[in-house]
């Protein structure tokens, strides 16, 4: 049976870890050639090697890029097109949560600027070069390939609900991602380019777990999680696959919440979760 991304080409940023790594593996399993982009090239190369070894029918390459630099993003998009011939899916997923990001009084300007540079400007540039590439995609109906494509921008639940444990620059940057994605979705809606925001809840990835490094910090959040657990990166990858594929062909401009019910919650249940979380795709 054909995969849900058969013959397509995907570029994923932040592909060395967490959501980006799980998505790279899943997209390849579904038939896509994948360019894994990360500032940590060793991690991206490891992911590409795993894919190449596990799924010989698709190609996976790694490239180093800092999404906070426009030239790096342009070069990464050019590489995807030169190596694979097109770009169907752009997953602008890389982001940072700086340990010195705090409230309005304590956040220093350079932390604000760095966060915006990577989390918001990086997504803008990713959209810009993806749109230019997707307009040039050749059509081949026999392979299910068409012009345009799907752009997925990773935002966050903190762009929707406020937290009294502030990371002001991070939250503002993710709010910017939501607004920008919505607007671009309208601009490009008639040329076959869809843009949606993926809004993860709190996940068990290094980005958050490095920060929630005490049981007290983790428990402070856990009380607000209806399912009684943090999310897994693979659960976001599965949602990203839906947005990437033609299964979501009538979706654009959405804030797609994958948050275990967090943004719908007032009073959460007590007790342990009944079901275990899904296992990472890095483990076969
Ligand atoms: N983990 C969470 O709880 C959570 C919640 C909501 C949103 N998010 C968002 O999800 C996205 C992915 O996060 P994750 O949890 O998978 O994190 P992660 O730390 O597991 O992975 C992030 C990856 O991005 C890479 N990266 C960092 N800065 C980069 C840069 N300038 N250029 C290129 N690559 C860079 C890192 O090297 C790393 O491989 C981020 O945008 C994050 O803000 C995460």
TrEMBL record:
Any Pfam family the entry gives = adh_short_C2
Superkingdom field? Eukaryota
Q: Which GO terms describe its molecular function?
A: oxidoreductase activity
What InterPro entries has UniProt attached to this entry? NAD(P)-bd_dom_sf (IPR036291), SDR_fam (IPR002347)
| Keywords of this entry | Oxidoreductase
| Family the entry assigns | Belongs to the short-chain dehydrogenases/reductases (SDR) family.
**Which NCBIfam families does this UniProt record tie to the protein?**
PRK07231.1
Q: What is this protein called?
A: Short-chain dehydrogenase
Annotated source species: Collybia nuda
């Amino acid at each position: 049976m054909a995969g849900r991304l058969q013959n397509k080409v995907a570029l994923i940023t932040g592909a060395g870890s967490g959501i980006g790594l799980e998505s790279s593996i899943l997209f390849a399993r579904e038939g896509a050639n994948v360019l894994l982009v990360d500032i940590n090239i060793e991690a991206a190369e490891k992911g590409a090697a795993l894919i190449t070894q596990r799924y010989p029918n698709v190609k996976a390459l790694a490239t180093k890029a800092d999404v906070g630099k426009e030239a790096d993003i342009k070069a990464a998009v050019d590489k995807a097109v030169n190596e694979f011939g097109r770009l169907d899916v752009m997953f602008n997923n890389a982001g940072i949560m700086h340990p010195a990001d705090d409230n309005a009084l304590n956040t220093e300007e350079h932390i604000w600027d760095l966060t915006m540079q990577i989390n918001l400007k990086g997504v803008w540039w990713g959209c810009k070069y993806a749109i230019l590439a997707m307009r040039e995609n050749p059509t081949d109906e026999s392979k299910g390939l068409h012009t345009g494509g799907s752009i997925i921008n990773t935002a966050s639940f903190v762009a929707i609900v406020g937290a009294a444990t502030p990371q002001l620059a991070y939250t503002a940057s993710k709010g910017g991602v939501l607004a920008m994605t919505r607007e671009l979705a309208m601009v490009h809606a008639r040329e076959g380019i869809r843009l949606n925001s993926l809004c993860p809840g709190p996940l068990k990835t290094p980005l958050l777990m490095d920060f929630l490094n005490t049981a007290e910090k983790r428990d402070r959040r856990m009380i607000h999680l209806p399912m009684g657990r943090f999310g897994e990166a693979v659960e976001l990858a599965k949602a990203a696959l839906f947005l990437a594929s033609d299964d979501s062909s009538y979706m654009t401009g959405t804030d797609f919440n994958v948050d275990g019910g967090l943004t719908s919650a007032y009073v959460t249940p007590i007790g342990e979760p009944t079901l275990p979380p899904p296992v990472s795709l890095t483990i076969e």
